[in-house]
Amino acid sequence: xxxxSYWAAGITVGADERADGTVRWGASLEFQDDGFVDAxxxxxxxxxxxxxxxxxxxxxxxxxxxxxxxxxxxxxxxADRLGIKFRSSPHGAPLIHVRGDGEYADExxxxxxxxxxxxQARRLGWRTYGDPTGQSREWGIR
Length: 142
What we know:
By secondary structure, this protein is of the alpha/beta class. The protein contains 2 helices and 9 strands, in the order βββββαββαββ. Strands 2, 3, 4, 5 and 7 form a 5-stranded mixed sheet that branches. The chain has a two-stranded parallel sheet with strand order 1-6. A two-stranded antiparallel ribbon has the order 8-9. The longest helix is centred in the middle third of the chain and has 16 residues, at 67-82.
């Protein structure tokens, strides 16, 4: 490890739909150490590294547990146990988002996915897409 800690800017979530219409959620994060491309020093053994942590499967919701909440909380708890810190960006708190920000045609997302992410961001004190209706590209907690 190059620096004193590993860090991530937030959590990425994704969803899929089973044949019966059940929505399932997964979560991941990408982390890195404090080293940067021009700071690698091979002779000193300081080489920057990165990694990815994710749920193995998409999670169904149950009567007692929401799959999105479980996926996010599992990744966050494992990151904490591994010493991965969540850092705020210059724009604010860590971010909950989807790959491609909902604009990739091959990324299926359920109805009201922005609203679901907004509720999670409020719960954690993080940020996500500013307008749950999808009308604004602004990032923030509402």
